[in-house]
From TrEMBL:
Keywords: Membrane, Transmembrane, Transmembrane helix. It comes from Aromia moschata. SMART domains: PHB. Its main location: membrane. The keyword NAD does not apply. This is Band 7 domain-containing protein. Pfam families: Band_7. Belongs to the band 7/mec-2 family. One of its GO terms (cellular component) is plasma membrane. Residues 26-191 form the Band domain. The chain crosses the membrane at residues 6-28. PANTHER family: AT06885P-RELATED, BAND 7 PROTEIN-RELATED.
Length: 279
């Protein structure tokens, strides 16, 4: 401690004693459980680290302090337009969750560690740059299908870069990926064509399975004529259960074949009689 600093400290203590007890209102400060106080005396960082939570003591006219909030805060990374590895322009925005891990470094080693809106300028600018760099190393398919990997890579990169500032990046989430309109239409057409092709394949497989089932059913019915009668009765039951104004009863050929033969014989007999009469 220099002579000037010693004299200023001594004068501040004397002033404190003279103005007791009113000076106590300016000497004792309180920080909450989620806060820490970084104290400077004549521009120098006081020993002992950050104070809090609770009550701490400052000398009037000599000490100044800065409160640091240790709670997790988040900020939106503005939409960043970047060129992917396969030369496609995409626009991606994200959200970053971070907290102050070391209050001393956050105050001493970085400017404006937190603005009045709660957003770290340095962390925000670094997040924007990191997001663009990571997008440039990924293909469009990876960006669309594996957002979690991009979030983890961005979180790891930011955490390493902000560690000297006393900032801990806890999480990064990709919010939205925007594609050009032409590319969206092309991808939609490709997806529609793929769905149609898949539907045709599924329909063909269904027809093939249905034909096999019908063949097996016909074989079973051919082996057992009674099964045909049971199926016929079941069909009639299903038809009668519905509210139909007209019901058609199909008659099996086996039941009317006898009458068909009689009609043929009768017709042949009539034709023979007519021929004999003509003679």
């Amino acid at each position: 401690m220099g002579c000037v600093e010693f004299a200023a400290t001594l004068g501040s203590v004397i002033l404190l004693i003279i103005t007791l007890p009113f000076s106590l209102f300016w000497c004792f400060k309180v920080v909450q459980e989620y806060e820490r106080a970084v104290i400077f005396r004549l521009g120098r960082l006081r020993k002992g680290g950050a104070r809090g939570p609770g009550i701490f003591f400052v000398l009037p006219c000599l000490d100044s302090y800065c409160k640091v909030d240790l709670r997790t805060v988040s900020f939106d990374v503005p939409p960043q337009e970047a060129l992917t590895k396969d030369s496609v322009t995409v626009t991606v925005d994200a959200v970053v969750y971070y907290r102050i891990q070391d209050p001393l470094n956050a105050v001493v080693k970085v400017t404006n560690y937190r603005t009045s809106t709660g957003i770290s300028n340095s962390t925000r600018l670094l997040a924007m740059t990191t997001l663009r760099n990571i997008l440039g190393t990924r293909n469009l398919a990876e960006i669309l299908s594996d957002r979690e990997a991009i979030s983890h890579a961005m979180q790891a990169s930011l955490d390493v870069a902000t560690d000297p500032w006393g900032v801990k990046v806890e999480r990064v989430e990709i919010k939205d990926v925007s594609l050009p309109q032409q590319l969206q239409r092309a991808m939609a057409a490709e997806a529609e064509a793929s769905r149609e092709a898949r539907a045709k394949v599924i329909a063909a497989e269904g027809e093939m399975k249905a034909s096999r089932a019908l063949k097996e059913a016909s074989d079973v019915i051919n082996e057992s004529p009674a099964a045909l009668q049971l199926r016929y009765l079941q069909t009639l039951n299903n038809i009668s259960a519905e509210k139909n104004s007209t019901i058609i009863f199909p008659v099996p050929i086996d039941l009317i074949s006898y009458f068909i033969e009689i009609k043929k014989a009768h017709s042949q007999a009539n034709s023979s009689n007519s021929h004999s009469q003509i003679i």
